[in-house]
Model the fold of this input.
Amino acid sequence: DFNALLVRFHDLAEAAVPDPAHPGATDLARELDQVSVRDWTNQHARTARIREFFPPILDTLLCKTADEISMLYYLFYARAGDSLKRLMDIKNGAQERKFKGGSAGISDGLAA
Done:
């Protein structure tokens, strides 16, 4: 079910946001801007387990809850970052260069 949801998400991202430079250019994009990630997930995930598992990915990537972010923004974010899978990946992905305690710790350490 998770892979099916990722495929659906990827296909929807390409359809709704064909050009990340203009994320609200399609009718579908404007429609999805009115839908939260949680609502979309609740409608499209096949199992309760995936409905519970998918939204926290957003918490990790954007530090916002699935209720706070529109589906359009999440699709745009995924398209701008190549794909949701790439954003979730650690090796050669967006999560590869995270720092424990945040990257501000580097400058704080240098200033000390």
